[in-house]
Specification:
This protein is an alpha+beta fold. The two termini are 18 Å apart.
Length: 79
């Protein structure tokens, strides 16, 4: 599952052969609404509880400066 246009493009370029893209949320505002966030979380939870996925991780970047950002990996499920 990807969230945002950049994530969808990156997944297509780098990991298409290793992962199945279940869902893509590409047309979100920079700050998703609570309804959009709920839809994203519900989709991730459904994939996990149906055992279609054995874990759910959030991969994001942490902005440090204009020339530097750090990749962060956060465990979402299982807790």
């Amino acid at each position: 599952m990807t969230i945002g246009r950049k994530a969808k493009s990156a997944m297509a370029r780098h990991k298409a052969d290793k992962f199945e893209l279940v869902e893509s949320f590409a047309n979100l505002s920079s700050i998703p609404s609570s309804q959009e966030a709920t839809l994203i979380a519900d989709t991730a939870i459904a994939e996990f509880t149906s055992r279609a996925a054995d874990k759910v991780e959030i991969i994001t970047t942490d902005f440090i400066s204009l020339v530097h950002s750090e990749v962060k990996r956060l465990d979402f499920l299982p807790i």
